[in-house]
């Protein structure tokens, strides 16, 4: 067997040999992701790089080799050999001193939360030597990936000199993976974690996965489902978790676990899980101490409590802060954190569901421990194709909050349909909350907000700069699985890549990230790059148009969340699990009234936003039906009445899929046949799905509007009963379909 240091190279070497010796019939199965390291075909460019990169120095303060630096050297050797051909001399040294970036929190970050500073510096010296420097080994590894990305992209050497640091400290993937390897809302096969075989038998994919995370700067992974099984905290499973942590550690990736709040009852033999019971607190402290004996760099717990049937502190008449703080106290001595999910809505459904998380958590602002992170979905509902940002980001000032983004496409076509999500995430991250910074509270009435911040976006909440909080985090619900290409849809890899790049630097644009990913993954042919970038950048809006345009939301099929289902759900136990609760269609119009005359969800936002969004004439049309009940004959900005605009948006989505199909077809022969065919087949399915969405939704809403379809909208293929009685069975990722 190859030594551990060479395990990561096996598939790379095999792929390179196969590609060189045979036709590329299966050379591009997608496994290599964006780390392809194929020889640069532009010979003058390759020669310039080969001349300039004759020696690489990896510089840390100690200059002592380590498993992480060994991985960095191996990555460089493989990458530059593949890209340039000649061997490059790689050495480890302490000859270069490195200055910290100008943000003082790096030292306190390391001291308090056990995270090493992760910045790196690249310098190209006149002696044809490149120095990659950092104060940590993992920073050097990130610098190695940055250098290789620079060469892969063919960027000028003059742009090589740079210093880069992550804007957010903890950058995690959440895996909704069960111990039986079923992945809830997963659309790329089974879980990567082969629990039955661990800890002795370890798939090479574990290191390949960690390597992919490190290449885009991600440094943590929650291994198990938010709907947790307490068995993950037992010694037999902790040994398995420790094996994964060992595989991930050289890449700077720490493991986290979802903890079931009722674990003291289920595996601890206690008769209560009351967080204020001393015996319960003692049990969690002992359990955390045990975990750290298995995994010394364990990151902490993710908790879903009192949500969708999950147990929590409210069963004991305690608050979310009571529950989170009890667990945080157990983790604090080890530098661990608690991520407490804010996806909470009450059982009695008295309040508009989109208001409930804010109502639940705002009174608790400032009551959480410093190592508690409130994990908040990007919108107030549930990862819809478009939502306004969660009002919690603008409301809570003293609590660390982590945006929770969904990389897996639960409501955006899953692994069948194309939706590049960077534009969606940028919408959220760049949204102005109009929050103000708490300053000089010693000289002001407690709680008064003074001096508006010039940087009050969701991104500045996430990176901790808005309220100067000591901890920062961002989380993405993973779209990876056992499929050979990792993500099911070949182009869905772009979302994994984009999340990592934005987690490192949220100022990057969707266009920049798309350009990088296409060049790294499909090569630099100008037509290929321009075409795939264009397809990617418009793809999310296309899905919105044919599924939930103009602010519509939560009108998908029951359970599997795949196709259309705007009609009432029979026998549901809750009105807010039925689409009419959200679209409120009637003879007058369509849309949820969340103004002061309705549920008044607008009151949870800053006055500037409440004023803008509270007027149907000034709210952005892409949020119109989120906040307003709009008359069927309401005049739209286009000059059309609302019904016609709605119908034409649905048709526009279908038309756009057809355009994407033609654009993709133009790439035949310019990219490998396997990935070309995989995407082409999915686009055929996507057009069919888009037509189903259009026809089902318009037929249903037509029963309220009683208006004909406008010119330009195709007639439905079937009647409404056909769509209402169509059943999607055994959909991937649907817990009820197992």
Using the 3D structure, state the CATH architecture of the largest domain.
Alpha-Beta Barrel
Q: Provide the spatial order of strands within the biggest beta sheet.
A: 6-7-8-9-10-11-12-13
Number of domains: 3
Residue stretches low in confidence (pLDDT < 50, at least 5 long) are 1-26, 100-107, 437-452
- Helical segment count: 23
Return the CATH topology of the largest domain: TIM Barrel
Helical coverage, percent range: 25-40%
* Beta-strand percentage range: 5-15%
Question: How is this fold's topology laid out?
Answer:
Blueprint: H1 10-21, H2 43-52, E1 55-59, H3 67-84, E2 89-93, H4 105-113, E3 120-125, E4 129-133, H5 137-152, E5 162-164, E6 170-174, H6 205-215, E7 220-222, H7 235-248, E8 254-258, H8 263-266, H9 278-294, E9 300-303, H10 320-331, E10 337-341, H11 353-361, E11 372-377, H12 392-395, E12 400-406, H13 422-429, H14 458-462, E13 473-477, H15 493-504, H16 510-522, H17 526-547, H18 580-583, E14 589-590, H19 607-613, H20 624-627, E15 630-631, H21 642-665, H22 673-705, H23 720-725
Helix pairs in contact: 3-5, 9-10, 15-16, 16-17, 17-21, 21-22
Short description:
The chain is an alpha/beta fold. It is built from 23 helices and 15 strands.
């Amino acid at each position: 067997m190859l030594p551990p240091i060479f395990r990561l190279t096996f598939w790379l070497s095999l792929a390179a040999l196969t590609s060189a010796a045979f036709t590329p019939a299966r050379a591009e199965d997608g496994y290599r992701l964006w780390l392809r390291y194929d020889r640069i075909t532009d010979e003058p460019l390759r020669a310039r790089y080969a001349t300039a990169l004759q020696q690489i120095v990896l510089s840390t303060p100690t200059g002592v080799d380590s498993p992480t630096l060994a991985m960095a050297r191996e990555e460089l050797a493989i990458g530059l050999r593949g890209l340039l051909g000649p061997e490059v001399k790689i050495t480890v040294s302490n000859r270069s001193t490195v200055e910290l970036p100008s943000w003082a929190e790096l030292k306190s970050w390391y001291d308090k939360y056990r995270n090493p500073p992760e910045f790196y510096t690249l310098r190209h010296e006149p002696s044809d030597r490149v120095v990659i420097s950092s104060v940590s080994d993992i920073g050097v590894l990130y610098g190695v990936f940055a250098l290789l990305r620079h060469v892969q992209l063919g960027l000028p050497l003059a742009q090589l000199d740079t210093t880069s640091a992550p804007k957010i400290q903890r950058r995690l993937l959440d895996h909704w993976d069960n111990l039986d390897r079923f992945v809830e809302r997963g659309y790329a096969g089974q879980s990567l974690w082969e629990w039955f075989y661990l800890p002795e038998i370890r798939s090479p994919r574990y290191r390949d996965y960690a390597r992919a995370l490190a290449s885009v700067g991600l440094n943590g992974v929650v291994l198990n489902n938010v709907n947790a099984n307490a068995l993950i905290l037992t010694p037999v499973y902790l040994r398995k978790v420790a094996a994964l942590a060992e595989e991930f550690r050289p890449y700077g990736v720490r493991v986290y676990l979802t903890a079931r709040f009722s674990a003291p009852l289920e595996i601890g033999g206690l008769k209560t899980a009351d967080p204020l019971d001393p015996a319960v607190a003692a049990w969690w402290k002992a359990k955390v101490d045990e975990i750290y004996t298995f995994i010394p760099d364990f990151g902490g717990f993710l908790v879903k409590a009192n949500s969708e049937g999950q147990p929590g502190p409210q069963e004991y008449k305690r608050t979310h802060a009571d529950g989170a703080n009890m667990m945080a106290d157990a983790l604090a001595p080890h530098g661990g954190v608690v991520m407490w999910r804010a996806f909470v809505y009450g059982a009695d459904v008295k309040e508009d569901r989109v208001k409930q998380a804010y109502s639940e958590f705002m009174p608790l602002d400032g009551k959480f421990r410093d190592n508690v992170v409130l994990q908040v979905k990007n919108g107030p509902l549930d990862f819809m194709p478009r939502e306004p940002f969660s009002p919690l980001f603008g409301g809570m000032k003293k609590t660390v909050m982590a945006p929770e983004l969904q990389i897996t496409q639960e409501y955006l076509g899953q692994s069948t349909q194309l939706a590049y999500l960077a534009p969606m995430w940028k919408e959220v991250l760049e949204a102005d909350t109009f929050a103000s910074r708490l300053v000089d509270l010693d000289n002001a009435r407690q709680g008064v907000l003074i001096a508006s911040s010039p940087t009050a976006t969701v991104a500045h909440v996430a990176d901790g700069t808005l309220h100067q909080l000591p901890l920062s985090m961002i989380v993405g619900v993973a779209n990876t699985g056992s499929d050979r290409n990792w993500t099911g849809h070949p182009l869905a890899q772009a979302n994994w890549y984009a999340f990592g790049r934005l987690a490192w630097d949220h100022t990057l644009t969707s266009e920049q990230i798309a350009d990088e990913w296409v060049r790294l993954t499909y090569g630099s042919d100008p037509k290929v790059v321009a075409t795939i970038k264009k397809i990617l950048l418009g793809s999310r809006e296309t899905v919105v148009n044919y599924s939930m345009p103009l602010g519509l939301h939560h009108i998908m099929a029951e359970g599997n969340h795949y196709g259309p289902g705007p009609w009432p759900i029979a026998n549901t136990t809750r009105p807010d699990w039925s689409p009419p609760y959200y679209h409120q269609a009637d003879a007058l119009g369509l849309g949820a009234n969340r103004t002061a005359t309705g549920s008044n969800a607008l009151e949870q936002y800053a006055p500037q936003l409440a004023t803008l969004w509270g007027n149907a004439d000034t709210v952005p049309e892409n949020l119109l039906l989120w906040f307003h009940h709009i008359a069927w004959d309401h005049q739209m900005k286009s000059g059309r009445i609302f019904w016609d605009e709605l119908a034409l948006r649905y048709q526009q989505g279908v038309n756009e899929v057809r355009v994407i199909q033609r654009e993709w077809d133009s790439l035949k022969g310019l990219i490998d046949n396997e990935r070309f065919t995989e995407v082409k087949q999915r686009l055929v399915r996507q057009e069919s799905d888009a037509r189903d969405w259009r026809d089902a939704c318009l037929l249903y809403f037509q029963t309220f509007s009683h208006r004909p379809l406008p010119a330009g909208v195709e007639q439905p293929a079937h009647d409404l009963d056909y769509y209402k009685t169509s059943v999607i069975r055994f959909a991937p990722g649907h817990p009820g379909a197992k």
